[in-house]
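dumping these here so i dont lose them again. two proteins, back to back, each one seq then structure tokens. dont judge the mess
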Amino acid sequence: MTGEQLPGSPAPLVPPTPPAAPVPLEARLGYLLKHAQQRLTRASAEALAPFGVDGHELAVLAVLAAEYPLSQVEVAGRLGVDRTTMVALVDGLEDHGLVERRRSPQDRRKNIVELTAAGHDCLRQAELARRETERRFLAPLGEEAGAALVRALRVLVVGVGEGEE
């Protein structure tokens, strides 16, 4: 026989292809990003604790400081959080005297949220702590590689490259 298969005969045995070697977790991008983010989150939480805010609350303060006046809904949109989460964040910040709500004079259905003097002070101090925490987190990479990582992640997350905006 020359290797031809006769009609009705069983298929020739072909050795199975060996499975690909599993990729170690430490080589998977998702695993690495998740665990790097968890480490940074823990370090940031420790750094922000003295100011009585967490990373989410600090983001609210930063958005409010960048543009005035904004409604709760507008802040939620910029942060990518739902309305319920936004209300809880603003409630907590308001309870600590860092923000205050008021009705919009142009649209009484909107709550405008503004930083108080204490909110501005908290933002300034907490931002310094956040930046220092990020600097220490990236330090093992060296300044140039750390900056390159931040630029690359920015391209992946917001689609903005160097010199664009």
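---- next one ----
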Amino acid sequence: MNTPSTPSTASTASTASTASPPDNQQHAKSPGGVSGLAGRLDQSQPYALGLFRIVVGLLFACHGAASLFGVLGGAMGGGTVPAGLWPSWYAAVIQLGAGGLVLFGLGTRTAAFLASGSMAYAYFKVHQPESLFPLQNGGETAALFCWAFVLLVFTGPGALALDGLFRGRVGAGATARRTSEEREEQATPVTV
């Protein structure tokens, strides 16, 4: 039985349906407009990138320290690389210096660019002539470091970098929050 609805009932139903979204839509988005797990992962991305930078920088600096000072097992099975020996000693200096800079987040992009280039040189001049593939020529570490540093060149240091102290940034999201606030101020009309 189809009974026509009265105008007051129809307007009440349509008002109720447009007034608030269903419960599943309210909980699907976080305050920033990004949904659930993806939103939380996006918010923590600068910190994950910062931790990645710290680990890669530390491991790279350890390689340099082992070659230069004989610590952590030393260079090539023990001992140190003779000072001035090309390319081993220079590579070790780059590893220690650039690795330390990347570790602390000081001049990360420049240091990562230099480190990436040194690892590309190491791969193509030392490892690749022995065999084509990294698994066969022992160049896996050089290839991984090379591409990890290329990533840092393009992404920057992430959170927890000392560069942020010199630029006046408090946290990883400070710049993003500041720019969104500036956009809101520019978009909001001023009324007197």
